[in-house]
Amino acid sequence: MKVRNYFYLAVGLLCILFAATHTLNGLTTMLPSINNAAIDGSTKVVFTYVWHIIGIENLVFGIALLVMAFVKNRSKVKFAAWLIIAILFMRWTVITYFTLMNGHDSITSLIPDTIAIFVVCLLLFFGTRVKKRA
């Protein structure tokens, strides 16, 4: 099996890494802190499953992109790449909107997510531009 698109391969590996780090961060820091907070049970459940949905979403993106990296016919996977780009930009928009609207003191807290999302989207964009070799 031959890698047809190294951009998709790299982004797939990054997405799997993001899934692991997001989940581990939740399990070690975020989720224990809400369990110790005075928050009702249903809010804790919602926060927990939303946290894990994002981790699983990243894992699914990663697996899909790893498969896409080996697909010979690029036109069959280009739409999926654009769809992932759109989802990630919407994710960034939601993160930015709610961070800024909820009176967060510093816009610098958006820097890690912004860098990660924009790097992934840029690499995916380059992946959509790869031409078939003769």
Structure characterization notes:
By secondary structure, this protein is mostly helical. It has one domain (6-129). Helix content is 78%, strand content 0%. It contains four helices and no strands. It has helices spanning 6-35, 41-68, 75-101, 111-129. Helix 1 runs antiparallel to helix 2, helix 1 runs antiparallel to helix 4 (111-129) and helix 3 runs antiparallel to helix 4 (111-129). The longest helix has 30 residues, at 6-35. The protein starts with 5 loop residues before the first helix and ends in a 5-residue tail after the last helix. The model has no long low-confidence stretch (mean pLDDT 91).
In brief:
With 134 residues, the chain is mainly α. The chain contains 4 helices and no strands.
Relevant terms:
single chain; 134 residues; mainly alpha; 0% strand; elongated
Query: What share of the residues does DSSP label as strand, in percent?
Result: under 5%
**Main sheet record:** none
Q: What proportion of the residues is helical, as a percent range?
A: over 70%
* Unreliable stretches covering 5 or more consecutive residues: none
> Rough shape?
elongated
* Straight-line distance between termini: 18 Å
Q: Structural class, from secondary structure content?
A: mainly alpha
* Tally of DSSP helical segments: 4
Mean pLDDT: 91
Radius of gyration, Cα only, in angstroms? 17 Å
Count the E strands.
Answer: 0
Q: What's the number of domains?
A: 1
H-E string: HHHH
